[in-house]
């Protein structure tokens, strides 16, 4: 069967002066469409590197990455940017919203780079904010919103282009447990609607939302468990 | 180009957030543009005025005289030349088929009396009946003197507008009245229309008399300037050649001898003026360009700081799909806006300053579109030149490093 994502012999080596860090070693990995995947592991185990490579923010030192059968390691910078824009939705621990820019405009940003016309942009951005329950906060700037609300804006931004895969890097890491639970509910919903979700977390109870848990250690898969 | 509007929007936010910084950054550009615009306005104004005055000399007239208008300091050579006399006037009249009008002009300054009124230092000009056609000076009252009055040394005169106004009461009929010009009585037959001044010298404070009448009194040796006008402007060069030949013949110059007379035209003056102002202009623009250069370095400095400050923003934009070109354009637009605002302020200050200078000094000024464009092009080039490096630096940031920048 065809996988949505297939990583084959991926290595990622960072050079820090004399030192070289082997973040991923001969990494073979697949993700199927519709999966809800949690990645766990101690700091330095390669979680973030894996997520960055999956989201095409980073390129592997060697190895192949197939997305929907296409080898994306051969993509040009411009095609990579398009790919990030169309196929990937990022959710970060620190939200990474543009300051001094209201919620609506933050959500519109991927649509601007995706060259959607203005009227469609406004409509899609409103719908996305509505989906995360923020239709009454359209014109608030990030510093006028609570942490949970900021993360919701970030989620709306991630889903507004209807990407194939959502990549979340400790989305609840900066939130209290109650707000974190609300955010996880939204992410669960995105998965229920058929999206593939990859989530990095340190917390067991967050990982249990997923239906597959992968644990990394020293750039390799330590365990790969399917739940339910 | 949706990201073009997006870039404008971000540029606006980022500049309005650091308003003082933006103003200080653009100050160099403001000063540079102010200088350029002020100087170009003043030079253009001067050019326009001078060109206008030159054209009053007649664009279509050759001036034959002993001295060249532009002598480059060789007065001792020209002083030895023979004076130009009626002999040369007649030679040109007879031997130049392209000459429509040949007008001798000879000047003296003297006093003019009418009854108890007396005017000092009035220009007495001896000339012939074609003076009005060549100089565009026609009588407002009465008439100009005729060929026969010139030939028969009649004691008639035509007054300049200023002389008439100073000698007679308003509305008083001057025609047929007698005035004394350095003691000689002449009868007024006409008054010229108002002519204004050229190079600050009034052309209304004159009395015109037939040249023979003039010479009868002042003598025949006084140096004459001859105005020669062709039938149509295209013949001006041909006329010049004919005049040179006619004069060389009448003065019996051998082929190895140089001309001992000069043929001037307003074109010569205009060329000389343009040559001088061009050098002045270039020097001034170079100075202004220097201040723009300093402004440009200021802009580059601030843009580099801005790129560093906004590293994270660049990372975010790249993560959600901004291409290198988008980031490059965003920063270039920011730099251009900064620069255009500076240009706008500079242009307003420059035009204002030029206007002020021409209001409090005799210097004329002209608001020229050329100056505005020059400023815009200059400052935009400066902005692009100094903005491309910081913008390129922003565009080439690694997205992950940018996202994790603290």
Q: What is the CATH top level name of chain A?
A: Alpha Beta
Return the average pLDDT of chain A rounded to an integer: 92
Strand content of chain A: 25-35%
User: What is the name of the CATH superfamily of chain A?
Assistant: P-loop containing nucleotide triphosphate hydrolases
What is the CATH fold-level name of chain A? Rossmann fold
What can be said about the biggest beta sheet of chain A? 6 strands, mixed
Q: Indicate the low-confidence ranges of chain A by residue numbers.
A: none
- H/E element order of chain A: EEEHEEHEHHHEHEHEE
Strand order of the largest sheet of chain B: 2-3-10-5-7-6
Span between N and C termini of chain B? 32 Å
Q: What is the ordering of alpha helices and beta strands of chain B?
A: HHEHHEEHEHEHEEEEEHEHEHHHHH
**Strand order, biggest sheet of chain A?**
6-7-8-3-9-10
- The count of helical stretches of chain B stands at 14
Number of domains of chain B: 2
Rg result of chain A: 17 Å
The tally of structural domains of chain A comes to 1
Largest interface: A-B, 31 and 22 residues
Protein traits:
heterodimer, A: 228 residues, alpha/beta, Rossmann fold, 6-stranded mixed beta sheet, 4-stranded antiparallel beta sheet, 7 helices, 10 strands, 34% helix, 29% strand, B: 406 residues, alpha+beta, 2 domains, 6-stranded mixed barrel, 14 helices, 12 strands, 57% helix
Describe the secondary structure blueprint for this structure.
The complex is a heterodimer of chains A (228) and B (406).
Chain A: E1 5-16, E2 19-31, E3 36-40, H1 47-54, E4 62-67, E5 70-71, H2 77-87, E6 88-91, H3 103-113, H4 118-131, H5 147-159, E7 165-169, H6 177-192, E8 196-200, H7 204-207, E9 212-217, E10 220-226
Parallel strand pairs in A: 3-8, 3-9, 6-7, 7-8
Antiparallel strand pairs in A: 1-2, 1-4, 4-5, 9-10
Chain B: H1 2-17, H2 19-56, E1 62-65, H3 75-79, H4 86-95, E2 99-114, E3 117-127, H5 131-135, E4 139-142, H6 147-151, E5 156-159, H7 161-167, E6 178-181, E7 184-192, E8 197-198, E9 201-202, E10 206-210, H8 211-218, E11 225-230, H9 236-250, E12 262-264, H10 266-309, H11 311-319, H12 324-360, H13 369-395, H14 399-403
Parallel strand pairs in B: 3-10, 5-7
Antiparallel strand pairs in B: 1-11, 1-12, 2-3, 2-6, 2-11, 4-7, 5-10, 6-7, 8-9
Helix pairs in contact in B: 1-12, 2-10, 2-12, 2-13, 4-9, 10-13, 12-13
């Amino acid at each position: 069967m065809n996988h949505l994502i297939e990583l084959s012999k991926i290595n990622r080596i960072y050079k820090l002066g004399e030192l070289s860090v082997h973040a991923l070693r001969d990494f073979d990995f697949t993700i199927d469409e519709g999966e809800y995947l949690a990645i766990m592991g101690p700091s330095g185990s390669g979680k973030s590197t894996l997520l960055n490579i999956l989201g095409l923010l980073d390129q592997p030192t060697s190895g192949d990455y197939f997305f929907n059968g296409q080898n994306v390691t051969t993509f040009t910078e411009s095609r990579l940017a398009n790919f990030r824009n169309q196929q990937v939705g990022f959710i970060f621990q620190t939200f990474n919203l543009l300051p001094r820019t209201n919620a609506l405009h933050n959500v519109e940003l991927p649509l601007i780079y995706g060259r959607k016309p203005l009227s469609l942009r406004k409509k899609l951005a409103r719908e996305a904010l509505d989906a995360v329950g923020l239709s009454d906060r359209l014109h608030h700037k990030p510093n006028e919103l609570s942490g949970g609300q900021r993360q919701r804006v970030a989620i709306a931004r991630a889903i507004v282009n209807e990407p194939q895969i959502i990549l979340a890097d400790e989305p609840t890491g900066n939130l209290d447990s109650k707000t974190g639970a609300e955010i996880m509910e939204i992410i669960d919903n995105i998965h229920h609607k058929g999206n593939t979700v990859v989530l990095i977390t340190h917390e067991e109870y967050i990982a249990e939302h997923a239906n597959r848990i992968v644990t990394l250690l020293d750039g390799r898969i330590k365990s790969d468990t399917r739940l339910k | 180009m949706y990201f073009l509007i997006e870039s404008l929007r971000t540029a606006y936010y980022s500049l309005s957030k650091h308003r003082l910084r933006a103003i200080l950054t653009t100050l160099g550009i403001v000063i540079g543009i102010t200088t350029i615009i002020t100087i170009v306005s003043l030079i253009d104004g001067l050019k326009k005025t001078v060109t206008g005055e030159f054209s009053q000399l007649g664009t279509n007239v050759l001036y034959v005289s002993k001295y060249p208008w532009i002598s480059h300091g060789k007065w001792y050579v020209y002083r030895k030349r023979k004076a130009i006399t009626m002999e040369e006037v007649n030679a040109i009249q007879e031997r130049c088929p392209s000459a429509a009008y040949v007008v001798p002009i000879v000047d003296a300054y003297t006093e003019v009396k009418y009854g108890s009124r007396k005017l000092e230092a009035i220009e007495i000009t001896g000339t012939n009946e074609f003076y009005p056609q060549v100089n565009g000076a026609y009588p407002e009252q009465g008439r100009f003197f005729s060929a026969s009055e010139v030939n028969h040394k009649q004691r008639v005169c035509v007054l300049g507008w200023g002389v008439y106004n100073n000698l007679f009461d308003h509305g008083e009929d001057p025609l047929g009245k007698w005035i004394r010009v350095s003691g000689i009585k002449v009868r007024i037959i006409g008054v010229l229309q108002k002519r204004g001044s050229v190079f600050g010298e009034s052309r209304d404070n004159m009395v015109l008399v037939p040249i023979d009448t003039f010479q009868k009194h002042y003598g025949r040796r006084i140096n004459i300037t001859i105005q020669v006008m062709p039938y149509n402007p295209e013949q001006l060069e041909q006329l010049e050649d004919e005049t040179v030949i006619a004069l060389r013949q009448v003065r019996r110059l051998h082929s190895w001898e140089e001309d001992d007379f000069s043929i001037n035209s307003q074109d010569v003056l205009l060329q000389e003026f343009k040559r001088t102002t061009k050098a002045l202009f270039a020097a001034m623009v170079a100075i202004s360009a220097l201040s723009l250069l300093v402004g440009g370095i200021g802009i580059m400095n601030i843009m580099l700081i801005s790129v560093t400050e906004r590293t994270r923003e660049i990372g975010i934009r790249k993560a959600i799909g901004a291409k290198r070109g988008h980031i490059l354009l965003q920063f270039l637009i920011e730099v251009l806006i900064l620069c255009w605002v500076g240009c706008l302020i500079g242009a307003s200050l420059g035009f204002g300053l030029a206007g002020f200078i021409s209001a409090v000094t005799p210097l004329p000024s002209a608001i020229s579109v050329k100056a505005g464009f020059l400023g815009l092009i200059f400052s935009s080039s400066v902005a692009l030149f100094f903005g491309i490096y910081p913008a390129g630096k922003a565009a080439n940031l690694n997205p992950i490093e940018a996202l994790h920048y603290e």
